[in-house]
What we know:
By secondary structure, this protein is an alpha+beta fold. It is 47% helix and 14% strand.
Amino acid sequence: MIKNEELTLPDANEILFRALKEGWNPTDFQKERLMEAGLYSFDAAIREKLAEINFFKRITYNIPRNSNRIQFFNRGEMIWEEQIAELLKVSNRGLIEMYKFKVRQYQENLKQLGLIS
């Protein structure tokens, strides 16, 4: 036999006061969960991340339509392509360093091929 019990929801104000009193910190997992569920696109997430980093305002990149990959360019040449999901895990500083490393690596390859001096 099923009993009809009254459902009591917690008071929203009480939850807010408790959060402030105990110093609750919000977590930034919502976008990740939405992406896993296919409700938030990877390209929107990486565009937001790159927009936060001043360094990338001067960098050309391309996200092909319906792709989970991003391509980075230097002086009109594609130097790096990567999975967006992997880059979302990297810190802003780490992402800048990765780009600089890829540019140096690309330039070294051109030197070895004798295409630049």
